[in-house]
Write a structure and sequence with these properties.
The protein folds into two domains: about 170 residues, Rossmann fold, CATH 3.40.50; about 100 residues, Hypothetical Protein, Haloacid Dehalogenase-like Hydrolase, Chain: A, domain 2, CATH 3.30.1240.10. The chain contains eleven helices and 14 strands. Strand 1, helix 1 and strand 2 form a beta-alpha-beta unit. Helix 1 packs parallel to helix 10. The longest helix is centred in the C-terminal third of the chain and has 16 residues. It is globular and about 55 Å long.
Amino acid sequence: MDPAWPIRLLALDIDGTLVAGPEDPVVPFRTTAAVHLAIARGVLVALVTGRMAASARPLVDALDVAAPLIAHHGAVIRPRHGRLLFHAKLPPEAAGDVLTWAAAHGLRAHLNHLDRLIMRTDDSRAPFYGRLLGVRPRLVPDLRAVARRPVTKVMVGGEPLAPELLAEARDAFTGRAMVTTSNSRFIEFLHPRVSKGNAVAWLARRSGIPLGQVAAIGDNWSDLEMLAAVGHPIAMPHAPDAVRAAARRIAPPLADEGAAQVIEDLVLGAASAHGSAEPEDARTVALSAR
């Protein structure tokens, strides 16, 4: 996808891009200021995450993002206020086979359905994940009984997972599930047509924005399709090689608020350089607001 100017839609991954992870719930000041300036310039900003919507909602509110939230890697698109816009569910047969695959590999699984976290009653991780995600787990004796009806996502976890398992899972479920990961502890299984890339393309069409005028920042395998779909793909420096290869630009490190620096330079700076209002140094604005 060829880049076009000005950038009108900014799609931001959360974990590993804006914050370290769910255990780090506050977006740093400089990043928050850059997002607010982009919104003030008329750029549509969307958060695009593997999290359930409930877990991402505090960041949506803190950043004052008006665009629909893209959650569960694109399986769910939910507006800040109002009814659900999109929900793609993993079919029961595929979900059951994922549970079988996980058991055969000695891995633990749990289910996500919209904002519900569903775990086995004997899963000792339930209290920790409930606190981490800010939801109360629903504990059930048998995940298969729940998975007889469509669910949003099956999560398969270990500490950590062997890297070759992702490729094996993708081979095993080709055409039946979208298989991805956003950290080394989980492989995630969703409806086969789900991806962040498809969700961002949907939002761009809905907003009348060509994909060439979309910028996206991400850091992991689940962001690959999103970066491939837009005109301005940016990867974090710790991203896997294939994800960095899909990017036109590599952001500075997360510890240096790399996403903020990219927004300041590419979105805010480029807006003036390509024919809009006079340049505004986002760094100066952010510091003066302290």
